[in-house]
Write the C-alpha cells for this entry.
Amino acid sequence: MADARRTFGSRFRRPLIGGAAALLSLCVSLTTFQTGAHAETTLRARLNADILSTEPGDRRDENTDGVLLHVVEGLVASREDGAVGPMLAQSWTVSPDGSTYTFTLRSGVTFHNGAPLTSAEVVWSLERYFRQDSRWRCKLDFSGQGIGNLVSMTAPGPATVVIALDRAAPLLLKILARSDCTGTGIMHPDSVGPDGAFKHPIGTGPFKLGEWRRNQFVDLIRFDKYAPLPGPADGNAGGKAPLVDRVRFLVIPDGSAAVAALLRGSLDVLDNLSPTELGSVRDKTGVRLDIAPTMDFYCLLFQTNDPVTGDERLRRAIALTIDTAGLTNAITWGTSKPNNSPVPATSPFFGSVQSELRKPDIAEAKRLIKESGYDGRPIKIITNRRYPQNFDAAVLVQAMARPAGINLEIDTLDWASQLARYGSGNYQVMAHTFSARMDPSLLFNVLIGDKTRDPRKVWSTEDARAMLQQSMATDDPVARQAAFDALHRAFLEYTPAVVLFNTSRIAAVHDNVKGYRGWAGAQPRLWGVSIN
Amino acid sequence: MLAYTFKRLLLTLPTLLLVALIVFFMIRLIPGDPAQVLLGEGADQASLAALRESLGLDKSLPRQFLTWAGNALQGDLGRSIVSDEPVIALIIDRFQLTAVVVLVAVALATIIAVTAGLIAAWRRDSGIDVAVVGTASLVMAIPSFWLGLILLLVFGLKLGWLPVVGYVPFSESASEAVFYLVLPILTLTIIESGMLTRMMRSSAIDVLQLEYVTHARAKGLAERTVLARHVFPNAFAPTLTLVGLTLGHLLGGIAVTETVFTLPGLGRLMVDSILARDYPVVQGCLLFTAVIYVLVNLIVDLLYPFFDPRVTAQ
C-alpha cells in the first residue's frame, strides 16, 4: 500500500507542481489583465467593422473615413453648421468670375515625418486624387455633371496653391471638405514608395497612424508637433488638439458584445449605437449618452420609369398615407425628428418651407389612386436588414398604405444586392439611406440627374436639374435659400422619393471621458477628448 | 496503407475541381456587384465600369474561371477585392486562430462526450442517464450566439474574470491569449459536446449488450476495465466519424462565435467577404474549407481501423 502511495505520489507530483505553477501564472496574468496599468493614456472607441484601407480616398467606407480624418487634413474642413472653415489653408481668395481659388497655406504646419507643409505637397496630393485610376469619390464632382471641369492646379509660391475650374464653382470648398472624400486630405509624398505603391498616410492631423491589426484594432498615436488652430473644435475644423497619447479603434461587430465591453470598462466610447440598443445602456451608472442629429436621410425611392410607380398620382398617394412623425418616433425610439425634405433639419437652409410635414390624408390618397387607375396589383418595396431602420420603415409604410388600398410587398435583400438594384434602377420602391452631406445641393444631387446616363437617379426632369444647377451656381445664402425652397416644393409635388427622417448619431460614453461630442457630420471626433 | 492514402488523395482532385466550379459560378449567381459595394451608392457608371475592368470582372465567366483556376493550381488564389491582400495569406492568417479554437474545443468536447456517454450508457435509465441525456439535448438546442453572449455577460461582465472583447495572439503573450480564448472555446465545447455525448451513449449501449462484454464481466474484470478496454474502443468508432464531420464543419469557420467574441477567424472572413462580394476571398475560403474537410475525413478513415478492427484500410 505504501509502495502504491509512493508510486502515485511520484507519478503525479510533477504534473501537480506543473499545474500549480500554471495556475499561479494564470492568476498573475489575470491580475495584470484586470489592473491593466498603463503609463500612457489610451482612448478606446468602437468600430462596427474594420477599415478598408489606410489610403485616403481609395478603398473607403464610413469607418475608414472616420479613422483617417484623424490622420490627414485638407485645405478646408466642414464646420458643424455645414459651412466651411480653414484648416491647412489660412485664407483663400476667389477670382471675380468665381472659377479660380487661390489658397494661402498656414505657416508652422508639419507632416508626421517632420517635413514642413508647402504647396508642393498640396499639389502632389491633389494630383494623386485626380489621377486616372484614382477611386477618390469627389473626382466625379469635377466634371460637366458636377461643379465644373478642373483646368489646373498650380503652386506659384511655397505657400500658395491655385485651383482653377472652367466655370464659377461656389461649391468647390464644400466638395473639398466632404468627409466621404476624406476631406481631400493632404499627404507627404513619402506616403508612397519609390515604386508608386502606397505605404501609409503621412498627414498633418492630430494623430499619426500606428498599428493596424486587421479585424482587431487600429491605433492612432498622438502627434506631438501638431499645430492646432485656435479656438474649440468645430465639426472637422477648429482646434483639434490631441489630448490622449493613443486612440485605439477596436473592431467589435456585435452590438451586444460592444455594450458588454463598454459596461465592463473595456471600451470608452461606443459610437454609432443603434436606437434599438439604447435600452441596454440607458440609465447605466458611469455611462452617459450623446445624441447628435446628423445630415443623413432615410427615404423611400420610387422608380419613375416603372409602369406602376411611374404615375405621379400613385407616388403622391403613397406619400399621403405615411404618418412621418409616428413612423420616425417608432423607428428611432424618439431620438430623431421627422423630416420630409432632403434639406436636413440641422442645415441652416432648413427653413419654414422645409419644416412643414406632409399630413397623412387617406381620403385624398384614395382619390389619387382612383384617378391613377391603380388596380391593387402588388408593388414591390425593396429593403435590407443591414440598416434595420430601412427594414422597419418598409414594414411601417406597408402597413400605413394598406387602408388606402395600396398593396406593397416587401422584398428583403442583402445590402450588396440592394446596392446593385439601386445602381441599375431595377426596382419599384426602395427603402434607402444616404450618408451625411454637409450641403443641401449635395443631398439633392443624389436624387437629381439624367436617368438615361445614370439609372440610380430618381428625379430626371429638366426643371429639377436646372434648379439644382441654380443652387450650385451661387454662394449667396438668400439666392440659395430661394433655390432650395423651390426644389423642396417641386420635390413634394413630383414625389420621386419620400424623405422620412434624419437620424441622430448616438454614442454611449464613459463618465471618465471628457470632451466627446457627436455632430451632424456623423463621424467620430477623438481630438479634444481626454480621459481621466 | 500508403497506397490507400495516395488513392484517397487522388480521389479528392475531382471533388476539389467540382467544388471550385460550383463555388465560382454560385457566388456569381448571387445578385450584387463588388464594384458597386466598393464604390458605394455615389458611384457613377463610368467609375463602376473602370473598376470592373481593373478587377477583371468585365471578362466572360469561363475566361475568369480559367484564369482563376490556372492561378490556383500554382498556389495563387488571387488578391482580395476589398483589401488587396493576397487571399492565401489572409486565409492562413485567419485559419490559425480558428484552428486553435476548434481543435481545443472539439478535443474537450470529445473527452466530455466519451466520459458522459459511457457513464450514461453504463447506468442506463438511472438518474445519471436522465441528467446526461437531458443536458446533452439541452445544449444541442441552444444557439451558439446565445450561449456565447450569456457566458460573456456572466464571466466577462458580471464576474469580471475574463475579457469581453479583443484578442491577443499566442506569439505575443501566451497567457493573455488563453484568457481571450477561454470563452469562445467554452462555448464551442458545450455546444459540440451535446451531439457527441448522444452518439457515444447510443453506441456504448449497443456494445454493452454484446456477448464479449458479458464474457469480460464473467471473467471478473472490474467494471472500469470492462468499460475502458472493451466498451470504449468498440463504441468510439461512430463517435469518431462524428468528430471528423464536426471538425471539418467547424474548421471551415465558426462565424457566429467569432463575431460574438470579436475573433478575427476564418468564419468572419468568409461572411464579410460574401457580404462584400469579394469573389477571390470567398472562392479561396470555400476551396480551403473543402480541402480541410477532405483531409479531416481522410485522417478519420485512416484512424478507423485502430478502433474497429473489422474495418481495414483497403
